Structures are given as C-alpha cells and as structure tokens.
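User: Here's a protein and a ligand (nicotinamide-adenine-dinucleotide). What would the complex look like?
Assistant: Let me lay out the input and then the predicted complex.
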Amino acid sequence: MTKSYNAALIGCGKMGTSTFDHLVNVFPKGWLPLSHGETIEKTQNINLVALCDPDKNNLQKASQQFGIKQTYTSYEECLKDNDIHIVSIATRTPPRPDIIRAAIKSGVKAIHFEKPICQNLGEAKLLINELNNAKIKYSYGTLRRYMAAYRHAKNLINDDIIGKIKHVTVENDVTTLMWNHPHSADMLVYFSGSNTPTHVQANCSGQFDATSHIIENDLTLHHAEITFDNGVRGTISSAPGMNTRIYGDKGIITIGSDGAYITHNAMKNDFYMDTPKTIPFDVNESAMEYCFQNLVSQIDEDTIPLINGQDIIASQEILFGCAYSAQKQGVIINISDIPDEFTLLGKSSDCYA
Ligand SMILES: NC(=O)c1ccc[n+]([C@@H]2O[C@H](COP(=O)([O-])OP(=O)(O)OC[C@H]3O[C@@H](n4cnc5c(N)ncnc54)[C@H](O)[C@@H]3O)[C@@H](O)[C@H]2O)c1
C-alpha cells in the first residue's frame, strides 16, 4: 500500500514558495516547479501540513498561497505540534544547522535542506555524521544532479560513451562562491566519479583578510582547478553559458545551457573529434519533483539516495578550498590543510547565502 507523509516547510521566502520572476520564462524544461512548497504540493504521497517562518508577512503569504492554517514563527513549536515525517528547510544558511538538528531530534523520517549545508567544514562533517547516525533520509539543494538532462548524461557516461573520464569543466560565469558555486562544486563531484577532492587552486575577488579564519562577504570566484583522488581534474571556469562538459578518452558530453540540451562529440582519431551530435532525452518532472520523489522512495523502499553525505562534504571542501587558496594568493592547497573552523559567512548586502 502506498504510504503518505506529512511535510513541514521551514523558511517561506523565495526558495520556499516561488521562483524568481526573471528566471520563470527563461528556464529550460526540467526546472519548474522549483520552490519547495510548490513542489511538495505537486508530489504524490506528501502532504504539506505546516509552515514556519519568523517573518509574519512571508508566513501569511505562504499560508494563503498553500491554504495551510498550521503556521508557526518557531520551528521547535512547528515540529512539536505536528506529526511531521518530512521537513523541507528553505531558510538562508545561518539557522540551517540548528533546524536540521531539531528535525533529527523530533524523529522525522527525511529532510530536504538547501545548499550550502553550513558555513564551515567542521560543522558539515558533524551534521552529516548526525544525520547518518540517526538513519534519516536526506536530499540537498544542489538540484542539477536530480534533473533529467544531467541524470541522462550520467547514465550515458556509465554506459562508457566517452570512455574513461579525464576532466570535468563547469561554465557558470563569474559569480558568487557560497550562493552560486555549491552547484558547480556538486557537478564536479557528480561527474568526476570521486567524492574525494585532494587539491584546489582558485582565484577569487572580494574583501578578505589573508590570515583570518572567518571571511564575512561572499567571494566572487573567477577560476578554480580541482584534483580528485581518482586522477580526474575539474575546472570551474569563468566562461558564461551554464554548460557542464565531461571529457573522456573517447569523447565529450556537454550538458548545455543548464540542461536545455545534451551533445556528444566522439573522438575521430588520436587528435580530433567528430562534430557534436545532439542526444535526445525525456523530461517528465522538474529536478525538485524528482528530488522529493526520490526522498519518498528512500523512505518507502530504502533506495540508494542520489546524494550521500560524503558527496555533500566533498562539495563543501571544494568551496572552502577555493576561498582558502584565494586567501593564500591563489596557491595550490591540500584539502586536508583547510582548518575545520575556516568559516565563510557568505554575506551579500545584508543577507547571507
Ligand atoms: N537550490 C537552488 O537552486 C537554490 C536557488 C536559490 C536559493 N537557494 C538557497 O535557498 C536558501 C533560501 O534562499 P531564498 O532566496 O529563499 O531566501 P529568502 O530570504 O527569500 O527566504 C528565507 C526565509 O527563511 C526565513 N527564516 C529565517 N530564519 C528562519 C528560521 N529560524 N526558521 C524558519 N524560517 C526562517 C526568512 O524569514 C525568509 O522568509 C539560500 O540558502 C539559498 O542559497 C537555492
């Protein structure tokens, strides 16, 4: 018999309830619905039963939008008063660790939480440990790995279409480290076939002190080179286009324009490649819908999650490695040298990532 699960949405801002207007009309297929609330509403077997936000204006708007009367300004009260099975956390980063811990303590079955998981590596390792010890199912806001185009490309790579992976490049333009590049770092982890980055070299701009263990403002990343323990190298490039390219010894797969298309170039000879061929794929749901469906099947059937704790830690290591390298004038740094307490607050204007 199909089971049904009660969900609470904690954080009823943009990502909790809607999508930036400027993106709605330009997203390729596979992005919408994007917000936690809209997606939960569309997902079979999950019922949105409670909302929480200390901002009463956002809370009231969400209450009207979703027709939910159980509203709270405190997540502790929200978790105490309701029989919640799934918690969806769409706050900014600072309160997220405490909310994850409160959800674990309340005995929920599953948590979806936004990226980045937290503001330093020590906290990330503790949180993943606590989630795993509690045997809670979880999913993460790095959504491309849940999206049809990226999953299809991964299947093609697993079927050996481009041979042994040598390099992964993510072209996400010049943008902010903590707000945007959790996605780039996750794509490197997803396609490199390793969740153990060993070295990072990066160039960032922004305000930072060369010796402090706390960087307040979100940095702008210009370029990063990452090495993984399996020998695969990754680049986060300043090139525009939102393309991810995976280079193997038999060809290249490109997921172009944020999942709008996939192309394949086969190696023609030792030096050159054939012209690219477009590879069709089906899009049956948005990344966020797939993410929540996967969360339900993890609870129901104990299926393998699409992301695991070490993947999340690895993408955090890449982000913190970029800032740590930049702080040292762009030298190559060893991931194991990043102090656990090295903290990126990710502040832009008066908000945190
Ligand atoms: N996965 C993605 O593709 C994606 C896209 C955009 C943003 N994000 C991430 O989503 C997060 C939220 O971004 P946003 O644009 O929705 O921010 P936002 O500021 O619009 O919304 C955050 C909401 O959380 C509420 N909040 C703050 N403290 C809280 C608490 N203790 N309990 C409950 N609610 C609390 C705020 O009042 C606000 O309404 C960010 O960390 C961002 O990095 C992810």
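Summary: Residues 10-16, 52-55, 58, 75, 90-93, 95, 114-115, 141, 143, 179, 353 surround nicotinamide-adenine-dinucleotide (CB under 6 Å).
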